[in-house]
Amino acid sequence: MRRPRTRASLAELALLVALIAWALFPVALLVAHALHDHARLTGADGLIGVDGVLGADQLQYLAWARDAGNHGLISDLFSLAPSGHVYLQPLFLITGALWRLGLSLPLAYLLWKPIAAIALFLAALAWARRLFADQLGARAAMVALALFLYTPVAALVSWATLGSSAFRFQMYLIGDELLPANKLWGYVPSALGLALMALALLAVERSLVPTGTRTACAVALGSLAALLSSLLHPWQGATMLLVFAGLAAWQRLRGAWLLIPPALGAGLPLLYYLVLSHADPAWRLAAQNEAVARLTLAVLLAGLGPLVLVALAGLRRPGQEVAERVLLLWIPACLITYFALDAFAPHALQGLSFPIGALIVRGWQRSRAPALLGALAVALLTIPGLAYSARKFAEVARGHAVQYYLPRSDARALDWLAGPAPAGGVLAPVPFAIVIPSQTGRAVWVGHGYWSRDYAVRAKQANRLFGGRMRPGAARAFVLGTRAPLLFADCSHPANLNRLLGPIVQATHRFGCARVYVIKRT
Q: Within a domain: residue 515?
């Protein structure tokens, strides 16, 4: 194999610019809307959420970062039950440290976007160079597919509004999971985890090829990348372990000792998460709630089937080339992880665009079709899905979702909660409650679909209270039962709770249309 060029081509650099622009696209829309409405941004900029709450995961990330900045280890702020500081996560720890040094929390998290975008690009470029050397057209095509692949059936279903709403959502979800570029919208840990996994697999491949003193460096880099990837996104850790096991079996254990350090790197965070899910009540609850139903067989076949069929044309005997073996093991490893793990299984599909993209390009080369048709095929596999995601976010940005925007009154009330307000947790309506931990560092009685106990029931109760739809006696018993010393009524809930709560309210603080009620201690 010829030695690949060390410089990126103009087409590859254009793809890097496109990836960074894509990463910043939602931020630009949100900032423009916030300036127009004189609102404060919460820092969330992702589309997918839990239980229909947009931006829920990013607001949890920001809450984790704030708690890491205050304590190092992270606790659960979406429950008023006692929670230990047990979670160590380097990205949130660094983000929290930057916040403590004076940066705003959203800005500190935003700094990871360009880092993650560059890491994803370099990972895709490294694999493209390894597989296609200095074939510049093929390299650029693989980089484009690795970063922007969106299954065309999912794009068609979304654009044409085909099938039931449940089917359309699952098709949108599989398209989103297969699209690494979309992880840059709020899900930076996933983007970095994917980039590090791709780089770890490449480093391990190089360690298994005799290179003298470079072998130790490759093993060290692969192990560190595997450790960080698994810690940031454990689904990638499980996939790497399967690839390493497959390599060891394929090579009949020759050189298997070189796979031990990266396997430990990938496996130790998985063990850590396993211990958390059994030893800590909050993590045990989250593990139970994340055991959601897998995608239906129809969705899997429609979403992955066409891509896999096209990729089959690029299969070839790997011979003794470790890179080719990794490429072939990568796809079944993702699928096994998908079926083996209960915790939000679709996350295991992230990363499939790398091997599938490489095989599609190789199959196209074998067909000897004109380059123009190849470019059109790449456009078909990327642009329709990207356009749909862009339109979807543009529609969201034009709204007034509290997960993204805070009116002045709500922002002033949150600032008071973060400062001189009495100590204690907060009872607030949903979805506004999910904003409170990241903005104030305070725990809430209900807020996140995975981390708040009996979320659906509690959310309904809280919204009945703040909507003024409870009788006074029931309202007082409910508030006292939550043991929340503070109640936050945002501007979308104007009901005066003093009429319902009467004697149990110690003080009411008004901030324009927002109110904070201090409950008497019993």
A: yes
Alpha-carbon distance 443 to 39, whole Å? 24
Q: What is the pLDDT of residues 311-350, one digit of tens each?
A: 998 888 887 788 999 999 999 999 999 999 888 889 999 9
Assess whether 309 and 220 both reside in one domain. yes
Report the chain's terminal Cα–Cα distance, integer Å. 76
**How many domains is the chain partitioned into structurally?**
2
Enclosing domain of residue 187: 136-394
Helix axis angle for 136-148 and 10-37, nearest 10°, is 30
Burial of 11 (0-12, 13-18, 19+ CB in 10 A): middle
Q: What is the tens place of the pLDDT at every residue in 408-456? A: 999 999 999 999 999 999 999 999 999 999 999 999 999 998 899 999 9
Please tell me the distance from the alpha carbon of residue 392 to that of residue 23, in angstroms, as a whole number.
15
Euclidean distance between CA atoms 457 and 345, whole angstroms: 25
- How far, rounded to the nearest angstrom, does the alpha carbon of residue 202 sit from its chain's CA centroid? 23
Q: Which residues pair with 507 in a beta bridge?
A: 518
Buried b / exposed e over 70-91, threshold 16 CB at 10 Å, is eeeebbbbbbbeebeebbebeb
Helix (H, G, I), strand (E, B) or coil at 506: strand
Those residues whose C-beta lies under 8 Å from the C-beta of residue 279, and which sit 6 or more positions away, are 86
- The answer to the question of residue 105 being in a domain is no
**Could you tell me if 76 and 442 are in contact, meaning their C-beta atoms sit under 8 angstroms apart?**
no
Sequence-distant (6+) residues with CB within 8 A of 299 are 167, 170, 171, 174
Residue 370: cis peptide before it, omega within 30 degrees of 0: no
Q: What is the largest CA-CA distance in the chain?
A: 81
Q: What's the CA angle centered on 44, arms 43 and 47, to 5 degrees?
A: 160
For residue 434, give the nearest of 389, 392, 401 by alpha carbon.
401
* Cβ contact 266:229 at 8 Å: yes
Phi and psi, residue 486, nearest 5°? -135, 140
Q: How many helices (H) and strands (E) does the chain have?
A: 23, 6
Residue 34 lies in a domain: no
Please list the residues that pair with 289 across neighbouring strands.
none
Beta bridge partners of 405: 41
